[in-house]
Amino acid sequence: MATIETASAADHPAIHRLARILYGGDVRPYTPVRQASRTFVARKDGEVAGFVICTFSDFGITRSGQIDELAVSETAQGEGIGRDLLHACEEWLRSEGIEAVFVSAGMEAEEDRQLSERFYLRMGFKRCIGPWLAFDLTKPAPATI
């Protein structure tokens, strides 16, 4: 039976070797994980008219960012505030060495989802399909694997 423990710097070469299973021989050397987030706001006439939250995960092997939340007040939509907020995230993510950024255009209402998707497509995002699986942490884990 294996023991599970937090990785140390001494484990980095072994992590790099094992990462080749996932990414092939061209995988970059492993470095400790970095994660961060930023929230930007747009002010109009002294009031917050929009905000965006972006995050990144730099696993030392892969580096990606995510636009987590973006909203612009209904009265300020169409003025380029969403675009400017998105650009602020892109600049910050680039400055952190992030290579790709993802966003989910998922909204409960179909009309809102389509509007969100059209916005991100206009901003240069491309449709992608990922190998994502979800696990609900609010429910108990299966007893057996």
What is the topology?
Layout: H1 12-23, E1 34-44, E2 47-58, E3 63-72, H2 81-95, E4 100-103, H3 110-122
Parallel strand pairs: 3-4
Antiparallel strand pairs: 1-2, 2-3
Quick tags:
145 residues, alpha+beta, Aminopeptidase, four-stranded mixed β-sheet, 3 helices, 4 strands, 28% helix, elongated
Describe the overall structure.
The protein has helices spanning about 10-25, 80-95, 110-120, and strands at about 35-45, 45-60, 65-70, 100-105. It is α+β, with helices and mostly antiparallel strands. It has a domain at about 30-120: Gcn5-related N-acetyltransferase (GNAT) (Aminopeptidase). It has a 4-stranded mixed sheet, with helices on one face.
